[in-house]
Amino acid sequence: MKKGLFLGFVVLLIGLLAACGGSDEAEGLLEDDKLTVGVTAGPHEEILEKVAELASEDGITIEPVVFSDYVMPNVALSEGEIDMNSFQTEPFFDHMNEERGLELIKVADTVTFPMGMYSEKVTDLKELEDGASIGLPNDPTNGGRALLLFEQAGLITIEEGLGVNASINDIAENPNNFEFIELDPAQIPRQLGEVDAAAINSNFALEAGLVPGEDSIFIEQDSQFVNLIAVREESKDDEVVQQFIDLYQSDEVKQFIDENFEGSVVPGW
């Protein structure tokens, strides 16, 4: 009888230990007491630091993980190295999901960065000579976005209906025989002197000390490329995800953006 009671106690103890062991899993994304968020350097990082400041008042620790390119933040999120990311437009996000078979989902809008054209050699588009070299991002969606920018500027026309999916092979008219050179988007500010002009994403322009509204020779009109917050599929209903969204889309963060970026970054929610 005593032996039976002892065995029953052992079984009960194992069950309790198993239940305790599963409690971390129940805590979701905050199981290690912090939320890791992937961003690119520059404005995304600065805005996240403001969100982290607000989150700390609610007892949530946010740890920024800063990346220097557009690919790794999604790879790291997919592989569970970070909890969420905030750095990309929806067309780029959709392309990455499809191309790499990622199971990431968008949970909220963040900010818009108007793309601009910059030059160290000319101050006006009219000064670009025939055959001038023009740089643009080498990733598919930002490259297509740059081509739409060039079309807005009246430099080229692209095949109808392609939109952001256009590539340099889809240029229908190039009357000034411009040479389009695809470059790593993060490196374009450093390589600006090697081309006559270039399209640069505003986050990289700002990181390089350029002010889109002042230093660009042409800037995107009525940009619809809103950035987003992404998480893994299994995390979308985690309570801390909605807490993060509420903090990001708060009046305090909007005021921070308006005061610190003066129109170079625009709240998109």
UniProtKB/TrEMBL annotation:
UniProt-listed Pfam families: Lipoprotein_9
- Assigned keywords, A-Z: Lipoprotein, Membrane, Palmitate, Signal
Give the bilayer topology: Lipid-anchor
**InterPro entries xref list:** Lipoprotein_NlpA
Q: Which residues form the signal peptide?
A: 1-26
Q: Which SUPFAM superfamilies match?
A: Periplasmic binding protein-like II (SSF53850)
Family, per entry: Belongs to the nlpA lipoprotein family.
Q: Enumerate the PANTHER family for this protein.
A: D-METHIONINE-BINDING LIPOPROTEIN METQ, D-METHIONINE-BINDING LIPOPROTEIN METQ-RELATED
**What is this protein identified as?**
Lipoprotein
Protein source organism: Oceanobacillus longus
Tell me the organism's taxonomic lineage: Bacteria, Bacillati, Bacillota, Bacilli, Bacillales
